[in-house]
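pls design
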C-alpha cells in the first residue's frame, strides 16, 4: 500500500476525456494541444500523446517540458519573454505566439526562422472571476486594436485568442466566437492558423460535441485557417484524486477531521477561488468538515457527508485533483508532498514518484 498523501491519476478517467478530444479533432479538423499550465504531470504523456497533437506553454520551462516529454507540435507563448531566454524558447518550439506587438518587434530578428503569431484580446470572456478574466479592464493579455495589428501582419501567420474560462455552455462559446469574427474578421482572413485557447469544457457530460466540432469546422473553412484548441482542464477533468488519511478528529460545534494533506499546499487553486473540494459520493448521516494539516486557519477542503463516523486511519479521497493542482503544489509548512501514482486501465496502481526531505530542503537554498 502506498503511503498517503498521493495524487492518483486514473487512466480510465483520462481516456474518457481523450476519446472526446480525439473525436472533436477528427470531426472538425482542429488540432488539440495540452495546456501545460493546467497539467504537466508527464508520467502520463505517453498515454495522452496518441489523442492530442502536442502541447502549449506559458514559459521557457513549460515549452521545454512539452518538447522533451510530450513531443509532437509545440507552441510557445508567454506574457513576456526575457532577452536571456528567447533563443532557448525558439529552440524548443514549432510556433511562437507573442503577447504584444512590442514583444514581437523586440524579438523580430531572433524569430525569423520560426512560425510567429500574436495573441488577440476580443475584450469579451466567459469568466465570472476578475482574477482569471483575460478580458478584465486594462488586461495585459493580448492586442485588441485592429489597425495596429494590421501594420504587423507581414510578420505573423496566425493568432491565439483565449477568452473562454470554465465555459460549459456551447451557446455562449458560439456567441463569443461570433463576437470574435465580427471584431477580428478582417485579420482572421489573412491568417493561416488560429488557436482558440482553452477554457472550453467540451469533455463534460452532455456537451454537444457534434455542434461544437461543426462550429469549429465552419470557422476553419470561412477563414481558411487551421484551428487549434488548447484544452487544459478539459483534458484531465475527473481523472485524478488526492488520496488522504484522517490523522485526527475533533468536535468543535461541528465534526472535524484533519487529513494528512493541505488545501493550501496541494489544491491551492480551490482556496484562491474560494471553492470547496469534492468528495464522492458525499452521502450519509455523518457530516464532517475535512481540514488540512497546515497551520492556516482556513486550510479546509470543505464539508461533506459520510456513511460512517470518521476515525483516525480512515481514507478520504478528494476528487478532481489534476487541474491547476499538481502544477501549483508547494512546500508550505513543510507538509509532506503528495506522491504521484497512476491507476492503469486494468486497475493496477503504479507508484511513480515520491518526494523526500531533500526535495524540500533543495527547493529553498
Ligand atoms: C492561453 C491559454 N490557453 C489555454 C489555457 C487552458 O485553459 P483550461 O485549463 O481552462 O482549458 C489557458 C488557461 O488559463 C490559457 O491562458
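designed seq:
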Amino acid at each position: 500500500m502506498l503511503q498517503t498523501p498521493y495524487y492518483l491519476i486514473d487512466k480510465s478517467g483520462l481516456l474518457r476525456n481523450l476519446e472526446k478530444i480525439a473525436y472533436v479533432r477528427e470531426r472538425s479538423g482542429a488540432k488539440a494541444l495540452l495546456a501545460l499550465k493546467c497539467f504537466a504531470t508527464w508520467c502520463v504523456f505517453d498515454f495522452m500523446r496518441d489523442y492530442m497533437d502536442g502541447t502549449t506553454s506559458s514559459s521557457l520551462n513549460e515549452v521545454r517540458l512539452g518538447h522533451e516529454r510530450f513531443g509532437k507540435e509545440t507552441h510557445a507563448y508567454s506574457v513576456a519573454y526575457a532577452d536571456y531566454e528567447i533563443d532557448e524558447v525558439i529552440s524548443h518550439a514549432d510556433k511562437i505566439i507573442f503577447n504584444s506587438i512590442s514583444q514581437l518587434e523586440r524579438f523580430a530578428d531572433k524569430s525569423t526562422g520560426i512560425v510567429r503569431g500574436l495573441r488577440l484580446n476580443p475584450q469579451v470572456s466567459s469568466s465570472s472571476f476578475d482574477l482569471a478574466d483575460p478580458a478584465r479592464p486594462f488586461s495585459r493579455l493580448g492586442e485588441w486594436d485592429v489597425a495596429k495589428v494590421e501594420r504587423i501582419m507581414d510578420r505573423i501567420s496566425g493568432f491565439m485568442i483565449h477568452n473562454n474560462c470554465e465555459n460549459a455552455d456551447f451557446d455562449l462559446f458560439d456567441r463569443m466566437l461570433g463576437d470574435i469574427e465580427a471584431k477580428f474578421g478582417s485579420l482572421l482572413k489573412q491568417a493561416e492558423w488560429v488557436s482558440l485557447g482553452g477554457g472550453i469544457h467540451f469533455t463534460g457530460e452532455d456537451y454537444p460535441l457534434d455542434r461544437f466540432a461543426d462550429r469549429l469546422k465552419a470557422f476553419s473553412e470561412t477563414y481558411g485557417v487551421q484551428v487549434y484548441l488548447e484544452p487544459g482542464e478539459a483534458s484531465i477533468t475527473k481523472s485524478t484524486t488526492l488520496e488522504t488519511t484522517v490523522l485526527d478528529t475533533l468536535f468543535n460545534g461541528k465534526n472535524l477531521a484533519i487529513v494528512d494533506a493541505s488545501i493550501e499546499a496541494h489544491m491551492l487553486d480551490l482556496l484562491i477561488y474560494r471553492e470547496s473540494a469534492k468528495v464522492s459520493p458525499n452521502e450519509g448521516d455523518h457530516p464532517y468538515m475535512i481540514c488540512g494539516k497546515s497551520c492556516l486557519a482556513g486550510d479546509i477542503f470543505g464539508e461533506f457527508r459520510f456513511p460512517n463516523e470518521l476515525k483516525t486511519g480512515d481514507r478520504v479521497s478528494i476528487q478532481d485533483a489534476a487541474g491547476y493542482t499538481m502544477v501549483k503544489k508547494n512546500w508550505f509548512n513543510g507538509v509532506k508532498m503528495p506522491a504521484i501514482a497512476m491507476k492503469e486501465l486494468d486497475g493496477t496502481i503504479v507508484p511513480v514518484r515520491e518526494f523526500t526531505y531533500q526535495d524540500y530542503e533543495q527547493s529553498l537554498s
